[in-house]
Amino acid sequence: MRAVVVNSFGGPEAVEVVETEVPRPGARQVRIKVAAASLNPVDAGVRAGVFGGAGERIGLGWDVAGTVDAVGAVDAAGAAGAWSVGAEVVALHYGAVKPLGTHAEYVVVDADAVAPAPATVDAVHAATLPLNALTAAQALDRLEPAVGRSSLLVTGAAGAVGGYAVRLAARRGIAVTGLAREGDEEFVRSLGARHVTSDAVADREFDAVLDAAVLGELALAWVRDGGRYIGVIPHAEPASVRGVETGAVEVSADGARLAELVRLLDEGVLTTRVAETYALEDAAKAHARLDEGGVRGRLVLVP
Question: Which CATH architecture is the domain 2-129+272-302 placed in?
């Protein structure tokens, strides 16, 4: 099968499409025939060596939408037995340094990372959901702002993670302010933000900040004394000041939680955005487009 990998770190030119063996699922795993897999900023970080792995062949891709192609042995808990060949699914394949990712024709994932595919969107759109929506949901869990009493600032509110965070928080009744670029205000407001700004908000003090734009200390300054700050890059959060609790979400694969997010997508609570699609063999071109910036929505690879 074909798979997208990097054998050495660098820019888009480091991305290779190679022929490799089709992986086999082990106990409590399933193999998915990939229909679509989104390209995320974390893939560019892996490609550049941000997460280590020098000297290894590293597979790219975290998100996947496709069809269960094979099921590993069922253990006493019956984990893999929840899925049968032919089931249409989505999943998060967690891990920055792994031999094969979802940017491939087939991928093996843990059975408990899998959720039924959305019924209301195609595989290309479905492939943009797992990583970004799970990151947003798990970041909000870390912040735990009290409904009706807390104010939340989401930076990068028009982005993939930030947009889901705004929508999920607004659904909980939280007063959300979205920080986004000029031209994105109407979109962020449509997600449920009570206030939207493209300017500095230093005169505002929020109970919590979800820093999807990775502004760091600048965003930390907008948290009230004793509030909470959550970033989206593990171990890269700024140091605590003024009693502000700081941290960063490290997304985890969670099929049950992903199934809830799929349900919200099918109910119209969540929406997906696809910027462009690329054939798998054009993965390097997709990386180059991502590096250019200004992408609204996700780039998606289609085998």
Answer: Alpha-Beta Complex (3.90)
User: How many C-beta atoms lie closer than 10 Å to residue 99's C-beta?
Assistant: 14
Separation in Å, CA 232 to CA 210, 248, 268? 8, 5, 25
The answer to whether the predicted template modeling score (pTM) of the entire model surpasses 0.85 is yes
- pLDDT interval class at 76 (50, 70, 90): very low
Q: Residues for the chain: how many in total? A: 303
Q: Pull the structure tokens for residue 121.
A: 């969107």
**Which two three-digit tokens encode residue 149?**
């009493």
Number of neighbouring beta carbons within 10 Å of residue 95? 14
The architecture that CATH gives domain 132-248 is 3-Layer(aba) Sandwich (3.40)
SS3 111: helix
What 3-state DSSP class applies to 45? helix
pLDDT of amino acid 39: 98
